[in-house]
Amino acid sequence: MSKVLPAALFGFLEELKKNNNRDWFNDHKKEFKAVEKEVKLFNEGVLEDLKAHDDVDGMKMFRIYRDVRFSKNKEPYKVNLGCSFHRVKPKLRGGYYVHLEPNASFLAVGFWNPEKDDLKRIRKEFEMDADELRSILNDKHFKPIWGGLEGEELKSAPAGFSKEHPNIDLIRKKQYVFTKKFTNDEVLAEDFKQKVGESFKAVRPFFNLMSEILTTDLNGESILP
């Protein structure tokens, strides 16, 4: 498994951005396959690092090919390489993601699209008490790495919740995610995989809390089979 990403990574993606067509891609497919192979080896290394402290059962590298059927943008290829890492469900919740793109690389963790019942459960929890979450968000080992909570949110309170509630900033969220950006030089540096591992490990208190919420009822009783 590779500890560093290939130096040709961003150069290839920049050229693809300028020449986003099938003829160019087919002429340079050998270059793409070489880059893709090295990125996959790197991601496999990230997976092994995750397994050292979390129950992760696999990863998914997203294909370079775009689905243009329902998109106004008909360019056939993405100009990034992304990979997600899956925690073992149903006991563990949340996900990890690595996004590699020229001048737009980032890590992401959290809950991108919670199911309706999960979102309601999260909101009911924060309606009752959000002290533990706020403590995690402000922790000296967490905040310098991940910053503040991001994600889409409603403009007002969801149905059944008061817009005056002191935790309405958390309740109106539709997503619960964190992102961490990196420059091209940082991504290609020898210590990038180490930074990925440290960042992912730092989010565990958040994942632990959210997993506990999503596997129990409001009385704290397990809902798992």
Would you write up a description of this structure?
The chain has 225 residues and is of the alpha+beta class. The protein is built from 10 helices and 5 strands, in the order αααββββααααβααα. It has helices at 9-18, 22-27, 29-51, 116-128, 131-137, 143-146, 168-171, 184-188, 192-202, 204-214, and strands at residues 56-61, 81-87, 95-100, 105-111, 176-182. Strands 1-2-3-4-5 form a 5-stranded antiparallel sheet. A hairpin with a 7-residue loop joins β2 and β3. α3 packs across α9 (192-202).
Describe the protein's topology.
Elements (H helix, E strand, L loop, with lengths): L8 H10 L3 H6 L1 H23 L4 E6 L19 E7 L7 E6 L4 E7 L4 H13 L2 H7 L5 H4 L21 H4 L4 E7 L1 H5 L3 H11 L1 H11 L11
Antiparallel strand pairs: 1-2, 2-3, 3-4, 4-5
Helix pairs in contact: 3-9
